[in-house]
Amino acid sequence: MYHIIIVEDDPMVAAINEQYIKQNPSFSLDACFTNGKEALDYLEDHEVDLAVVDCYMPVMDGITFLREVRHKNYPLNVIMITAANSGAEIQDALRLGIVDYIIKPFSYERFQTAMERFRYAKNALPDTDRIDQNTFDSLFRGQGDVPPNAYDTQVKGVQPQTLERIENYLAENASEFLSCDEIANAISLSRITVRRYLNYLLESGKITSRIDYSTGGRPSIRYRLL
Predict the structure, then answer these.
(1) Is 55 helix (H, G, I), strand (E, B) or coil?
(2) Residue 210 belongs to a domain
(3) What global pTM score does this model have?
(4) Which residue range(s) make up the domain with 57?
(5) At 106, which CATH number?
(6) 12, 116: one domain
């Protein structure tokens, strides 16, 4: 079993990440943190295999956290999950050796692909001091692509009645891009539930999304029916 931590200051996103992690029996969620400094302090006394890290956080952001992890030579693998999609930020994360980079909003299947990519790469390394060329090529071909059926892609917990409520509200406001909070408040559901169904609808190709940077603070993700 692999030990994993979440580093995310948005409680709703952290809760979704936690739900997704707990559906994969190969991983044990050890702790959650709201910034990189808290996670870095934790790593001083705990061994962790994988961290799911946001980019925009107070106190210490994700890229700074990554730099500190590499500086201290912690054997930690990192998946970045963030609304940040600029080329410079992605290049910084890649140079610092991330396992995967997932741009919000994301689906259950995409999240599981990232975790299984890490697990597949770890399992592909033989327990030996020497690695032959074929093993090395297999590991790095396609950044450690996950073989078919490596994990169950079934989306769990999608209720037709709840899905219909969300789709109907989006249809009634088809000309607008709506935030998760706006939808949740309008139809009296929790933000976590609405976000999970929006991710499902995105993966199904029924809605589209865009990032709103006009809020002046944390970028807001907004959704609309196609």
Answers:
(1) coil
(2) yes
(3) 0.63
(4) 2-125
(5) 3.40.50.2300
(6) yes
φ, ψ for residue 103, nearest 5 deg: -95, 130
CA-to-CA dists, residue 87 to 45, 77, 83, 84, 218, angstroms: 34, 21, 12, 9, 19
Q: Which amino acid is residue 137, in one-letter code?
A: D
pLDDT in tens, the chain (226 residues): 899 999 999 998 899 999 999 888 889 999 999 999 999 999 999 999 999 999 989 999 999 999 999 999 999 999 998 776 667 777 888 888 898 999 888 888 889 888 888 887 776 555 555 666 665 555 555 444 554 444 443 445 678 888 889 999 999 999 999 999 999 999 999 888 898 888 888 877 889 888 877 766 667 788 999 8
Residue 131 lies in a domain: no
Q: What angle do CA 151, 131, 112 make, to 5 degrees?
A: 15
Tokens for 153, please give them.
Answer: 């892609």
Which CATH number belongs to the domain containing residue 209 in this structure?
A: 1.10.10.10
